[in-house]
Amino acid sequence: xxxxxxxxxxxxxxxAGKFPRRHLALAASTLLALGLSLLFLPGENAEAKRTAIPxxxxxxxxxxxxxxxxxxxxxxxxxxxxxxxxSKVEVRPGDSLSSIFSRANxxxxxxxxxxxxxxxxxxxxxxxxxxxxxxxxxxDGALSAMSYQVDKLQSLVFERGVAGFTTTEVREKPEVxxxxxxxxxxxxxxxxxxxxxxxxxxxxxxANIFGGVLDFVYDVRKDDFFIVIYEELYLHGEKLGSGQIxxxxxxxxxxxxQAYRYIDAEGEVDYxxxxxxxxRKAFLRAPxxxxxxxxxxxxxxxxxxxxxxxxxxGVDYAAxxxxxxxxxxxxxxxxxxxxxxxxxxxxxxxxxxYITKYLHLHKRAVGQGERVRQRExxxxxxxxxxxxxxxxxxxxLVNGVHRNPATIVDxxxxxxxxxxxxxxxxxxxxxxLQLQLRTYAAQRNYAADSGQG
Length: 453
Fold this sequence. Notes:
Elements: H1 5-16, H2 21-39, H3 62-67, H4 70-75, E1 87-90, H5 97-103, H6 108-117, E2 132-137, E3 143-149, E4 154-161, E5 164-171, E6 175-184, H7 189-195, H8 200-210, E7 225-235, E8 238-252, E9 255-263, E10 269-272, E11 292-295, E12 315-318, E13 324-326, E14 331-339, E15 343-350, E16 354-364, E17 371-372, E18 377-381, E19 391-398, E20 401-403, H9 405-408, H10 423-449
Antiparallel strand pairs: 1-2, 2-3, 3-4, 4-5, 6-7, 7-8, 8-9, 9-10, 11-12, 12-19, 13-18, 14-15, 14-17, 15-16, 16-18, 16-19, 19-20
GO molecular function, one term: metal ion binding
InterPro entries: Cell_wall_metabolism_enzyme (IPR050570), Csd3_N2 (IPR045834), Dup_hybrid_motif (IPR011055), LysM (IPR018392), M23ase_b-sheet_dom (IPR016047), NMB0315-like_N (IPR054512)
Main location: other
């Protein structure tokens, strides 16, 4: 076929030139591997005990090596060093920051650096038993970061920076679930709500919302009924507590009061009736919560100390010593002091026409000239002055004339309302809650009529 060897070689070179370089490189690699393996094949006269040497050669095509660039090397993901572990220390009764740092094998100098350079480090002075503080140290054992869990939703993380420690506030967002509770009152609102599984915070807020239309000391009666729709907060399946009351209804002696939470166009939050009237009246019907009236307004009352007929120009609320006393409305403290008959007392002026008086306080929380807001604590129930036991004596004056605190509120100017332009939005916000209240009220009435409630 070929005349001589030179002609054969020339033909082979011409044929090889038709193949791409990468194919030739692969072929060369394959031949090389085959040749190496033949070198180690045992011959016929080889000893039976000769040990074979395994070869695990991973051959990279020549073309691939030639085409690899610096960009390819740079694009390779860097090897990440493992992050140092956090060690946790639980705060024990009697612990101080110094003792906690000592248990974590950290120095007083490191504690001083955190306290003097980290923003919000003052929060560490409020540590409580049961809380946890986590520490992270570097390879030399020096503090690099620490985390303080303020509560179940908030943590402060302090990290070492160039000029001391920085602070990052971490907040978790809880899951919000809606809950409905209802109860019939047999003895008191507090007991009925508590038996229905309603938290104390929700009970107090319920009284706050209806405090302008109901005196929960004087007005509450057996067989009153309430429904409350409110939020409960959960984190990772664990219940954290209660959120906001969304709507509530109270049935009192044939009357019904409804309240709905509404956020207006300016972002202000308040509670309104179904007609858009604010539940927040100018004055509370009672300046303290969940107590009982021991003496009502009576101009011909026999004085309990002097045993003489003296006008009783106010209402006495019997309550345990230390019960908070609230300002009945916004105003300015015109007197705050002590006298032999009144004991510790506070007088508040509301506008030009109204004055409220609070007597026999155990302690006073405000001084003369201070501005106060409705439901702000102004003192605590006591028995100072001419008093036979711990109670609050409460008076209400209109233009200098004593009026019955239990009835005067109804005769005062009406409260604010939802603006006319916002009424469509208000009604849209509360429509679903209205339906829920009607549904639960109907279920309760059906159960009561059928003897199930």
